[in-house]
Amino acid sequence: MEATKVRAVLLKNEQHPSDGKQILISPHISKEELLSLASQELGISAKKIFSDTGLLLNNLSTIADGVTFYVSQGENFQVKSSGAPQKTSKKYVIAVLGAAAVGKSAITLRYVNNKFIRDYDPTIEDYYTKNAIIDGEPTVLSILDTAGMEDYFPLIDDWIDNKDGFILVFSVELPDSLQRLRYFQDKILHRYSQQGNKGPVTIMAANKVDLPNRNVSSEEGRKAAESMGLKYMEVSAATASGVDDLFAEIIRVLRSRRATNKPASKEPWYKKMCSLL
Questions:
Q1: Which of 23, 167, 50, 47 has the alpha carbon at shortest distance from 107?
Q2: Residues of the chain with CATH 3.40.50.300
Q3: CATH topology of domain 90-260
Q4: 47, 181, 261, 270: which has the highest count of C-beta atoms within 10 A?
Q5: In this predicted model, what pLDDT tens digit does every residue of 231-257 receive, in sequence order?
Q6: Domain spanning 6-72 has what CATH number?
Q7: pLDDT of residue 105 exceeding 60
Q8: Which of 178, 239, 166 is nearest to 206 (CA)?
Q9: What spatial distance separates the first Cα and last Cα of the chain, rounded to whole Å?
Q10: 21-35, 48-62, 102-116, 119-133: range with lowest mean pLDDT
Q11: CA–CA distance, 241 with 26 (Å, rounded to integer)
């Protein structure tokens, strides 16, 4: 049986990489095959491959879904953050879910490219990579934009697997799109039921709030989110209002959880006694 393909992002090895190329590859692809594919996709003569931490990859083991590769024409790793010495970027994988025509792709492309595309030709799924600085810390977001047509809902289990966070999007024009979010939330809760507060972060986003005539009020949206145990935020892909804050909020919660779950330091007993004197 053929192995399930995984998604990867190819970026040119530059100080400020441009938007990546999303590809589907075998998790057991060889380095030579990946170099050949990278040459075709990026239009360069690919000779070296680096991880997102700058590690030169001489041998590829099994590739994880959503991985990012930096492709070099022979030069050393170039990706740098400005200002202070470079920190290792933390990577998070986020899926954007919701019914059709609610603006999932518009929100994703607004965040990744800072562009608004009114008429977008929907595909089954697309991965995008965003290199961001959130609260001063370099962060890499791998964002899965999914189809909203019910014909594709059998893929939902693949979409929600191995994710750090979810954005459940509805349109304030379409009351039914708000109700459909319960289906996605139930799936997420079932998949991560054993992980408790170590599971993914999920936020409900009301899109198209820039429109003058909305059919779902802010109060209705908040009540629906509260009933599902979710944080509620309002955004407009058209004006960019709230979009950056939406993704940043997920990262902030994830960072807070990681800090909270760190094991307590084992301080010698005599130091604890001294602090009480």
A1: 167
A2: 90-260
A3: Rossmann fold (3.40.50)
A4: 181
A5: 999 999 999 999 999 999 999 999 988
A6: 3.10.20.230
A7: yes
A8: 178
A9: 68
A10: 119-133
A11: 38
